[in-house]
Design a protein that fits this description.
This protein is mainly beta and 139 residues long. The protein has one helix and seven strands; from the N terminus they run E-E-H-E-E-E-E-E. The radius of gyration is 18 Å and the shape is globular. The model has no long low-confidence stretch (mean pLDDT 92).
Length: 139
């Protein structure tokens, strides 16, 4: 299946430290995509509260192998490029069944990822200076 959306928390060149898997949240899915994913049994989540900007989303994962990562021309993207939140992506996923501690479901396996519009991750935002009119020479 091909899924289009916006990337969040892309860990596609190295595994995520918490899960130990290569993964990406594919967010802001359109209604047709949600319907197609649910038709094969994949649970589509809805962002709420602090995660409301995710809209409808899935977490696509690969446990053993890193996915192939390419740009919109099909050229490989170097592992030094950090895919930031909001990057427009297209992903090839495959549904897979899982069972863990009495729970079962269908997950989204991540085969490959195409970055259509890159928002490069730049680390923490810089703080803007504040001018309160006082002299802070004592610092």
């Amino acid at each position: 299946m091909i899924v289009r959306g916006k990337a969040q928390w892309a860990h596609v060149f190295e595994p995520n430290e918490l899960s130990g898997k290569y993964q990406v949240d594919i967010c802001n899915l359109d209604k047709k995509t949600v319907k197609d994913l649910e038709a094969v049994g994949i649970d589509v989540k809805t962002g709420k509260g602090e995660k409301a900007e995710k809209g409808r989303f899935i977490v696509a994962k690969s446990a053993k192998y890193p996915p192939k990562i390419v740009d919109k021309r099909g050229d490989l993207i170097k592992a030094t490029v950090l895919i930031g939140n909001g990057s427009e992506i297209k992903a090839s996923i495959r549904p897979y069944e899982w069972n863990f501690k009495g729970k079962a479901g269908v997950g989204a396996g991540l085969n490959s990822l195409m970055v259509l519009s890159l928002v490069e991750y730049g680390g923490l935002d810089d703080l803007d200076p504040e001018d309160d009119g006082e002299d802070d020479d004592e610092l």
